[in-house]
Fold each of these.
Amino acid sequence: MAVMQPPTIALFAKYPAAGAAKTRLIPALGPEGAAQVHRLLVERTIATIRHSGLPFAVYFSGAPREDFAAWLGDDVALVEQGEGDLGDRLTRVAAPAILLGADIPGLTPRHLQQAASALDRSDAVVGPAQDGGYYLLGFRQRLPFLFTDMEWGTASVLDHTLARLKAQNIAFTLLDMLADCDRPADLAHYPNLLP
């Protein structure tokens, strides 16, 4: 199998505006506290990506490019997510890529390096999340069928994704399962995130 170019990590991130980020944490932390947790998670995830050595871009929403550049620095590649639901926005990412969210406190550079290595021998790689979704999805070639008519935010996203890959005979690798930080109960596991 020919060696392909390294995948670019596409980190999907919303601007940490109070009331618009990590809204499921607002009952526990308030709008400002929830936004601060999101800010910290994005910054930690970017540091993890940098440590992995892989190329990356932040696919942004919720504020103009200038606000993201002021927050994250001029050296971070920024790509506007565009309109539509999550599936529409994920479909726009060019291959080879590793789609990534910023809400996985346990993510390490090793997970990202394993994902990139997996794409040398598989067409796709999936990092399953404990809540029934996934925290990472990598692909050598675009797989738009993974993003249409998906019930995002439900406990069935991972199962539906794997079933679609199998139905299309797409060879994939599964990474370690990790927990995300989305709900107030999750905060007990990550006290260092609390504002």
Note: Residues 32 and 79 are 25 Å apart (CA to CA).
Amino acid sequence: MKKRILIVAAGLGITLGGITVGNPITSQAAIDADIVGVGHDPIQNIVPFLAGNILDSSKDATFIGPSNAILVVNGQYYRENTNGVFHVRLPNYLDVGDSVVTKFISTSSGVSSATRVYTTISGTTIEPKVSPGATRVFGSTRPNSQVTLLVNGEPAGSALSFGYGQWNIAPRIHIPLGSNVSVRVTSINNSYTHTLSSPVYKVTTPTPGSLPKGPQLVQTVTDQSKDILFTATPYARVTLLGTEHWADSAGIVHVKLGTTLKAGTTLTATMVDDFSHTREPLTFTVISSR
């Protein structure tokens, strides 16, 4: 009997935040049962690599893997977007501590890789770090939420998160050096029922002339790279080679190269976050793949 595999795609994808986000394939991949597990496929030794983190405030996640594969995330099936990069639209918000179970299925043999499990972390953050006497505090969380700023556990101002979850608060009090600051977040439209909390941040004196952390490379860039992935803050703007690129809600910036780069080339990526703060630039060198 001729072995075959049939994958039914649900569309080419939609555009969000400057990247293409893949729609899931049909709710069940139409893979012939008699092909799965037949023979050896190198994909069995590859597990999905997560770029950045999966946040409880994010609707997107990005994985890297082979181009001849279907990505499975918590039972949903996705095609790659380009060169083994999978931008995934999560079907719903996840909570801190939730497991995200991933694996690949080969489109040539139907063989599955081993699974890799990731854990959702908090996406309710204060960025950049709070300085003593700050007149504005900024951050990100889920959109359409009530955000309360806490200084040493006491309310010090509140605001609504807007757009994609950005918020900013003018504190009602002077924030002293050494204070503990955090935020408490609740839904205003019943999209979730529990309270979200940020990590607790210690207020420190900033280093004179220093800039908040900027973009970071996900993988080494070589003279064979066709894509460059950075981690940043959600919805930040990263400029590389004179072109602006936008981070998604998970803070991933995907740059598609029109041509490969020469080994030894030095590049600088600059970043402005979603609140117009300039971040520390990142300089890196393209290395040889040989």
Note: The first strand starts at residue 14 and ends at 16.
Amino acid sequence: MSELSELVARLERQVREAEEAHRIANGLWEACEEQLDELRHISSALSELSWELDGYIADCDYSAVERAAYEIRGATDADRLLPVLRQVLLLRALRDGDTLPDPAEIESLPELPAEEAAHPVLTWEELLRDSQKELEEREASLRQIWCDEGDEADLEDALHEARTEAVQDRATRAGRHLMKLCEYIAEELCPELVTSTENGNIQEALKVLAAMDAAGKEAEPAYKVYEVALSEQYESSPSSLGAVGEHLMLFESWLGTQ
């Protein structure tokens, strides 16, 4: 009976140890998934922000567009995300029984070569150049249409409309550049970051995070281009800004009375 009792006791101890190991494994899995979810959420958050930006741009809501630019930067800031990435890589290694990464290896991001920073970039000079080229082509087409004697007034009206629309189009394009930035990060970089992290590919994960950080930094200068383009539109045709234009005109009138 003593041998049987010892066997039972040993089996019970093994069961308890197995249950404890299972509990620890589950805890590691849940902790790892919780941190991974924070990385996974970036994609959906930026996709939703891109959709919201479409409405802000249509309404010429420059303050909402500015807030969105700050949100893009915040969502991709490496200072915030690198600690999360480090935790995921460590938890994943513990969970899967892999060799723990060298702390020095995951302490900082690698330098990203300029050619690997493939995020969309738009400067005011580029926007103006492309817009001017399209306007010149449209003006040439209008001059061919309104080329008969007596068409001068109609031609002038058509040219004026084309120039006004070109100004408005610049503001729209500048705003939509922020949408492109959101979509690039959400559709190109976020999946790569999550996949490389899940696979424990440390160097690739760090490299993608560096690219994401660089793309997020583009949001502020992109907004500045939009701000310049919208200011140009307001000076050209305040009423084309809808409610925002009316509000600004009333504010200017009020300032004029002070």
Note: Residues 139 and 159 are 6 Å apart (CA to CA).
Amino acid sequence: MIVYYSPTTGEMMPFVIRGTNIADDAIVKDFYPALPVEQARPFILGTDFTQEEIDQLPRTHLVEKPAGGKPQPDMMGWNFYPPVIAPVLKDFIETLEPGVHEFVPVEVKRDDGSQEFGTYYLMLVRQTSDALLFDETNWDGGQYGYEAARKERFLISHFHNPVLRALACAGLHIWRGTGKLVKQSFCSDEVGQFIKEKGLRGWYLQPCQMHP
């Protein structure tokens, strides 16, 4: 098991959640019926969605076949739409943060009608934290600071570990950023290590550094 420790605090580190960087685990998924962009917007842009908006979400997801003949991934996506996750991960998150997040059951099926995978869960993350330190985080253009982040559309570099304030994310297990970073999601070391130990597929977890 790989365990990541912060060089500044010596504590285990949380992770940025990204879509997988393994081609065989990357699959296209979509709501069925298709979700109009105006209905998707509250879930893309923030955490302030209503129960009525949740109730209008389609309860079926169609997925393509993974490349290379691999089984269906356990986690599907985190870009734009909320992720769809397998029951094993949903149950673990609920043990850590009971009643914090919304888990909408959806039926996952192959888009060509050849297979059905049963119930997964669309995870709607409601909690946020402004833990990320802009001046210590490297952005896609290779620079640091808020202006660099704005210039690079607030995309955190894949090649440098972002830096978080430990106190701002203490006790959190799944959260989104605030403001322009609301599309970026993070998970605690406990969630990250569970995913690694169980061999769950579908996300790339980028370690963060912790600042006291």
Note: Confidence is low (pLDDT under 50) at residues 1-9.
